[in-house]
Amino acid sequence: MEQMTELTKKVLEFLEPDSSKWAYWTSKQLLNPVSESKCMESFKERILKAVSNREKVIVAGDYDCDGISATTIMVSGLRKLGLECGFYIPDRIKEGYGLSEATVMLAHKKGYSLILTVDNGIKSKPALALSKELGMDVIVTDHHTMDEEVNCDIVVHPDLMEPCFETLCGAGIAYECMRKLGVEDDYLLQLAGLASISDMMVVKGQTRALIQNALRSINETHEKHIFSLATDRDLNETSIGFQVVPKLNAIGRLSNLANVNNVVRYFLAHDDETIYTLGSQITQMNTIRKQMSDQMQKTALLKCKSNEDIYIIEDTSFHEGIIGLVAGALCSRFNKPCIVLAKNEQGYKASMRSPEGFNCMEFLGPYKHFVVFGGHENAAGFSLNLNEFDLFEDFVHARIKEYTYSVKKKETLIITDDELSLETIQSLDVLRPFGPGFVFPSFEIIHPQIKSLYDFQNHKHRKYTLESGLQCMRFNQSEVEYKKSVNAIHSFIGTAQINQYQGRKQVNFVIDEIVYE
């Protein structure tokens, strides 16, 4: 700790004022011992019984990166034990989230006697009830909120495990299950770390250890499944979050164009040809997703009126798998709550995103006509019947007039531009991984000494070069911002990144917000 740079000390003190805890945040964590909880013991006992009886087991997963990773971990581990193990992840658009009665019935017809859910299952009441009727056993492994008893044979959940496991994601639980069975390996660890990053889990306890050890292993082995989807040659939680995770999530989002079960096959594949072929398809699908998302954002922006306190936007061209991304982009751009809806034959699918301080669930709670409704403080998803859009729109505009909230002011760490160098930015790696519970701070440069500026892509983006030589990038600047005087700038708020181009590394400051005098 004595060798920390001043910038590292500054960041650490900002994130953790209690210096007695600094050793934890600056040291590499070992994995905690395997869980001895009752639910884990029951899990092990039931799986070994399945092995002894030569049962057929099906793993029922979820269509995001966590669910895909958890499915792969569970299938890979159980097959090592010699079990005949199938898997199924539902179609996001046609079937929706979670274990369905249709999946249970099909599994029963195909002779499966044990269903094992990963990253879902807690809320699948009808499907769990049907499983019981058919005489099938179900093990639910899930990390989502468990507020009532689950109607199944065994539940494996962080709430039922030792405190160090409380921040585990679905794949983290699947990995702990494989540790309990003694069939874990470095690859399954890598997938658990990938999923922990993707699902934005609190980076404490076993989750912190998983991410740290997984990243070390990924970079040491240059793991081909993960690196095939990345552009950087050295990966951390940030590069994985931006380069790998969106590609995996894109397949589930575009379930009318691709089958997410093929991503599990990609991760289960060992031969280079299959890995290359499927990896290329995943990347190509993400390119399509980006194009669709950009077009939807352009359409949505044309419908945003600056005088509205909340945006509610619907268009017949919107794809329901991408509406959450568009709502998030608009919310970030305008710092206002935003609801984006896509229309299908059954009705409307909608996603809501809101700034810190605005509670989506609290805001939407009084509306009584949702077909499906769920989410948390800053993000919600729901469905409406075809004839209820006008009713819902009236509710939203009336509700926003009575709903009071205050957007939380972003806390920033004030620095000078000469504190940012390759050495000081690289020195921050000792604090990784950053994430929920230990979020990399937003830096603020007060009164930046601007030497020159350069607009590109038809004024969409701007590069400020400071007297120190630091380049500050402002992406997607607004028309208002473009026309404002540079002399009125009070500060830049953003993050420092190391960019590599033609073998040369340099520090760039990416501006999230410009504060004016």
Automatic annotation (TrEMBL):
RecJ OB domain: residues covered = 415-512
Q: Which residues form the DDH domain?
A: 56-180
**Molecular function GO terms recorded:** exonuclease activity; nucleic acid binding
Supply the alphabetized keyword list.
Exonuclease, Hydrolase, Nuclease
Q: Which SUPFAM superfamilies match?
A: DHH phosphoesterases
Record domain DHHA1: where: 315-402
Which InterPro entries does the entry link to?
DDH_dom, DHH_sf, DHHA1_dom, RecJ_OB, SSDNA_exonuclease_RecJ
Q: Write down the superkingdom of origin.
A: Bacteria
Which PANTHER family does the entry mention? SINGLE-STRANDED-DNA-SPECIFIC EXONUCLEASE RECJ
Q: Say which family it is in.
A: Belongs to the RecJ family.
What this protein is called in its record is: Single-stranded-DNA-specific exonuclease RecJ
Source organism per UniProt: Holdemanella biformis DSM 3989
User: What is the organism lineage in this UniProt record?
Assistant: Bacteria, Bacillati, Bacillota, Erysipelotrichia, Erysipelotrichales
